[in-house]
Amino acid sequence: xxxxVDFPASRIRVSSDQTALDVGALYAAIKDxxxxxxxxxxxxxxxxxxxxxxxxxxxxxxxxxxxxxWQVEFLGSGQxxxxxxxxxxxxxxxxxAVTEGTQVVLxxxxxxxxxxxxxxxxxxxxxxxxxxxxxxSALTLKQFIALS
Length: 148
Fold this sequence. Notes:
Elements: E1 3-6, E2 11-14, E3 20-22, H1 23-34, E4 46-50, E5 53-55, E6 58-59, E7 62-66, E8 71-74, E9 78-83, E10 86-89, E11 102-106, H2 125-147
Parallel strand pairs: 2-8, 3-9, 7-10, 9-11
Antiparallel strand pairs: 1-2, 4-7, 5-6
C-alpha cells in the first residue's frame, strides 16, 4: 500500500493495488506528511480524534476530518473500501474525490454509547404528563385569580 500526499493539489493518493484503506493508516500517513519538511509549509490536512481507552479492553472509534479542499483519491479503477474508522470532511463535505471507474464504499461504524445511572429510576411518560398537567393547572388557576 502506498499513500502519497500531493500538497499543491490537496490530494491524498492511494495506490491502485490498494482495495481497502484503513482510516488509522491514512491518519498516520497524513501526520507523517504534515511533519515532513514540505508539509510544515502548508496548512493542516486533517484533524483526528478517537481510540480512547473506554476500559474493559474497549476503545472508541477513530474519526478523521479532512480540511477543505483536501480529498482522498484512489488510483486505478474498481471498488475500494474505507474501513477502521470514520472519514469525513473534505472539499464540499466529500472526503473522497470522484475518479472515473472507481466506486468507493465508506464503511462507517455505528456509534454506541452506554449510560450508567444510579438512584431513582427515570419517570414514566405518564408521570411526566401528569406533572406537566398539574403544573399548567396550577399556573392557569393563579393567572385567573390574578386577572380577577
